DNA sequence: TCCTATTGGGTACTTACGTCA
DNA sequence: GCTGACGTAAGTACCCAATAG
């Protein structure tokens, strides 16, 4: 049995940004291998296949736990309203049938007033500049289904965001991202779990967030993913441990039985040298005996496991 | 070519806040 | 209304690789 657990998929890069192969091996590159090795040694020191060499007993392919970013929030497909700004083929639709999608963004007013935002927005390279023309409304929406409390919090958020960015050293105010923002970030994260500066700026602009917020969100998201994966790994290894313990118990029992058999049959030692090898795929023991003429004869397989 | 300082982005850990039972 | 658990945004410290001088 061979296990190979990996975090992340370093081989995967942004399909739309293949010029930025950023993910290094250390980025969530946690690989763990567990190889079950079994010393093939038929009976104690008798007719071993070699001088104590180890052989893999399974040809099973490694079990790979693919790290899929878990999605605590409902998945939102990047529809015509939710497009990744850095996608070159993301030609945002200019029309809005319901009049909500790209309407007046109240939050935008506060954002525009931010020096940092303005500067970083201006720093956006021209290929992404089209984004600014197609703001997705992640701020207030007239007639939205959200409750009064949520709207109130949004109001607080809007005001506190402006005050936060003053950087006047006031107490930090925790800003809750809206469901739409979280869902969009989640979709972005599925595309790639790290961002280059361009992507960060574009996302921030798209979501009416500060680049720092996007950055922090991705950091925390990676941390959550890693934590989740660690839990999965732990659970998996626990099961492996249980399986191996059970296997060990079974083999010990089998060994005891064979010893008992050996003791009850004195003529046993007169048999030709026998080698037991376990078939890795079907877990049967193939018995190879040396015949009188020196040739090896393969005896029928013996099922060893229940 | 080697060394060093700088910079940017990453992780790990922590804190503080919002939500909910 | 109070409280504790939990989720998460954000701060901080530190590490590492790339780069310039």
Automatic annotation (TrEMBL):
Pfam families: HALZ, HD-ZIP_N, Homeodomain. The keyword Transferase does not apply. SMART domains: HALZ, HOX. InterPro entries: HD, HD-ZIP_Homeobox_LZ_Class_II, HD-ZIP_N, Homeobox_CS, Homeodomain-like_sf, Leu_zip_homeo. Residues 234-264 form a coiled coil. Keywords: Coiled coil, DNA-binding, Homeobox, Nucleus, Transcription, Transcription regulation. One of its GO terms (cellular component) is nucleus. Belongs to the HD-ZIP homeobox family. Class II subfamily. The keyword Acyltransferase does not apply. Residues 168-228 form the Homeobox domain. Residues 147-163 have a biased composition (Basic and acidic residues). Residues 170-229 bind DNA. CDD domains: homeodomain. It is found in: Nucleus. GO terms for molecular function: DNA-binding transcription factor activity, RNA polymerase II-specific; sequence-specific DNA binding. Residues 145-175 are annotated as: Disordered. This is Homeobox domain-containing protein.
């Amino acid at each position: 049995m061979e296990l190979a657990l990996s975090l992340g998929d370093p081989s995967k890069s942004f399909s739309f940004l293949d010029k930025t192969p950023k993910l290094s091996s250390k980025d969530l590159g946690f690989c763990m291998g567990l190889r079950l090795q079994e010393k093939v040694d038929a009976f104690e020191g008798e007719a071993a296949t070699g001088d104590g060499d180890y052989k893999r007993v399974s040809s099973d392919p490694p079990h790979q736990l693919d790290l899929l970013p878990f999605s605590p929030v409902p998945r939102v497909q990047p529809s015509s309203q939710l497009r990744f700004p850095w996608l070159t083929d993301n030609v945002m639709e200019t029309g809005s049938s319901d009049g909500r999608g790209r309407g007046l963004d109240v939050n935008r007013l506060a954002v525009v007033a931010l020096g940092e935002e303005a500067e970083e927005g201006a720093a956006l390279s021209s290929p992404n500049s089209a984004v600014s023309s197609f703001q997705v409304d992640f701020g207030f929406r007239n007639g939205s289904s959200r409750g009064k409390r949520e709207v109130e919090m949004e109001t607080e958020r809007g005001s506190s965001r402006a005050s936060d960015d003053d950087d006047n050293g006031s107490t930090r105010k925790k800003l809750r991202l809206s469901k739409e923002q979280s869902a969009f970030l989640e979709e972005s994260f599925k595309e790639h779990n790290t961002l280059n500066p361009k992507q960060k700026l574009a996302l921030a602009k798209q979501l009416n967030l500060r680049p720092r917020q996007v950055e922090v969100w991705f950091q925390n998201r990676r941390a959550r993913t890693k934590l989740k994966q660690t839990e999965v790994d732990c659970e998996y290894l626990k099961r492996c441990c249980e399986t191996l313990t059970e296997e060990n118990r079974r083999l010990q029992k089998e060994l005891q039985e064979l010893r008992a058999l050996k003791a009850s049959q004195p003529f046993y030692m007169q048999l030709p040298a026998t080698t037991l090898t376990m078939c890795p795929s079907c877990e049967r023991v193939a018995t190879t005996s040396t015949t009188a003429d020196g040739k090896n004869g393969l005896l029928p397989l013996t099922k060893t496991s229940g």
